[in-house]
């Protein structure tokens, strides 16, 4: 089967976990005997590249960024001109290769993918892995609610939501650029994408994120299926390399590492984590918190024994997993299915996480990690302390997390779920085309 991935970003440009997941999935489909072509903007990489059998076609783009966790200004890729340019290059590539299905993986890849699928009579599949199609600010209401409120509207967005959202996520310079004046256009953009979503088969990275969209009326109950992300295959660090890594980061042998990997943002629960860290360090003096991820903590004083490492390449992050005693995911927003949970389990590490979104689908409380209420620094601190003070329990949880990962989050299961959906989409599309032709 020939499969087209339409991606706003693709490696080496990886502003989030989606890009790593997409590469692993594309490689898995190739290993299963299928041809995968990725069409994506070129932010400064080879125009055509072959990555372990995956063909990557990057079309000319007017903005540039660096490889890694960097991205261009959102206005460059959230506009009709971008959709038209993307659609044109996607159409040219699709006419040359005649794929069986087009699979869009980012909100801004959905309009061009939908247009080309419509023109060529191809099935359209879209992966929901965040809240980007819920509203122009990505479902800011979900920072305080479990579901999108029923009174969600443009008027409420302008009068209420942005007042809570901008102080947390947009610096003063952003507000001076007149971004608020663009909110009606951005609202219309999201509305159009949701119309397009109603014609696609939807893949959710967890039941949790699918339920958020179902409750909000964005997808039909029978249109979404779960295909869990593929976990990484970790390389084993030798005792010597582990010692070298600890020396590199200035860690003594008796220090216990609590690792946080992700954006340093409100929705990721960084503020809750910093408050919890004070309690943990006062109770367990050997504990050290390492925060790896992009973002700044402007105006925030760090508690003792908390270190911000910044954005790191995946290879360096994997070394940190090896050194970690506990991995923490304190998200406030409904985390669809954090790659950090997959990665920590792959390295045999227990995780302390908030019980939000799809987290419960990978963390079994008391068996593979500990779940705590979101926004509760006391509960978060207590759970971290409990694991740091019990070596046997911590290691047993890590082993169990690693063992269960292969049962539910295997490459075979992910590929099988997608192929079934592709086949179902093709049959549905063929039936719809036949009915349309007979009606004429």
Description:
The chain has two domains: 2-230 and 411-439, Rossmann fold (3-Layer(aba) Sandwich); 239-408, Glycogen Phosphorylase B (Rossmann fold), CATH 3.40.50.2000. It has helices at residues 17-31, 74-77, 80-97, 110-120, 154-169, 172-176, 183-197, 207-215, 239-248, 270-283, 314-323, 339-346, 377-388, 391-408, 411-439, and strands spanning 2-6, 35-42, 48-51, 54-60, 101-104, 124-128, 201-204, 224-226, 256-261, 287-292, 306-310, 326-329, 351-354, 369-372. The strands form two sheets. An eight-stranded mixed beta sheet has the order 3-4-2-1-5-6-7-8, with helices on both faces. By secondary structure, the protein is an alpha/beta fold.
What is the makeup of the main sheet? 8 strands, mixed
CATH class term of the largest domain: Alpha Beta
Structural category is alpha/beta
Roughly how many Å apart are the termini?
30 Å
Count structural domains. 2
Instruction: List low-pLDDT spans.
Output: none
The spatial strand order of the largest sheet comes to 3-4-2-1-5-6-7-8
Q: Helical residue percent?
A: 40-55%
Anisotropy-based shape:
globular
Q: At the third CATH level, what is the topology name of the largest domain?
A: Rossmann fold
The proportion of residues in beta strands is 15-25%
Can you give the mean pLDDT?
Answer: 89
């Amino acid at each position: 089967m020939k499969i087209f991935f339409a991606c706003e970003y693709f490696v080496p440009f990886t502003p989030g976990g989606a890009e790593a997941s997409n590469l692993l999935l594309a490689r898995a489909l190739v290993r299963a005997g299928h041809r995968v072509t990725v069409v994506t903007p070129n932010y400064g990489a080879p125009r055509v590249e072959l990555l372990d059998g995956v063909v990557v076609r990057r079309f000319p783009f007017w903005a540039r960024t660096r490889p890694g966790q960097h991205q261009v200004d959102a206005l460059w890729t959230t506009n009709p001109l971008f959709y038209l340019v993307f659609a044109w290059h996607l159409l040219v590539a699709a006419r040359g290769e005649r794929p069986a299905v087009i699979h869009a993986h980012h909100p801004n890849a959905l309009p061009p993918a939908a247009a080309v699928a419509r023109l060529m009579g191809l099935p359209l599949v879209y992966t929901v892995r965040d809240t980007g199609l819920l509203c122009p600010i990505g479902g800011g209401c979900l920072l305080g609610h479990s579901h999108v409120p029923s009174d969600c509207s443009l008027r409420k967005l302008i009068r209420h939501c942005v007042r809570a959202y901008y102080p947390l996520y947009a610096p003063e310079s952003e507000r001076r650029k007149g971004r608020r004046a663009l909110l009606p256009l951005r609202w219309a953009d999201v509305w159009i994408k949701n119309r397009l979503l109603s014609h696609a088969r939807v893949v959710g990275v967890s039941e949790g994120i699918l339920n958020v969209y179902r409750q909000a009326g964005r997808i039909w109950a029978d249109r979404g299926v779960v295909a869990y992300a593929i976990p990484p295959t970790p390389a084993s660090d030798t005792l010597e390399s582990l010692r070298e890594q600890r020396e590199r980061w200035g860690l003594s042998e008796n220090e216990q590492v609590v690792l946080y990997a992700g954006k340093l943002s409100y929705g990721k629960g960084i503020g809750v984590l910093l408050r919890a860290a004070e309690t943990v360090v006062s109770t367990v003096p050997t504990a050290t918190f390492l925060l790896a991820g992009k973002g700044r903590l402007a105006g925030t004083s760090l508690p003792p024994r908390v270190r911000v490492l910044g954005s790191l390449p995946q290879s360096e992050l994997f070394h940190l997993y090896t050194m970690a005693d506990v991995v923490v995911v304190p998200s406030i927003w409904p985390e669809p299915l954090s790659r950090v949970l997959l990665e920590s389990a792959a390295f045999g590490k227990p995780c302390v996480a908030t019980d939000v979104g799809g987290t419960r689908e990978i963390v079994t409380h008391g068996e593979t990690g500990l779940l705590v209420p979101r926004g509760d620094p006391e509960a978060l601190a207590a759970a971290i302390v409990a694991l740091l003070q019990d070596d046997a329990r911590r290691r047993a949880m890590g082993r169990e997390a690693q063992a269960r990962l292969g049962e539910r989050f295997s490459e075979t299961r992910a590929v099988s779920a997608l192929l079934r959906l592709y086949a179902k989409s093709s049959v549905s599309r063929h039936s719809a085309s036949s009915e349309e032709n007979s009606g004429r």
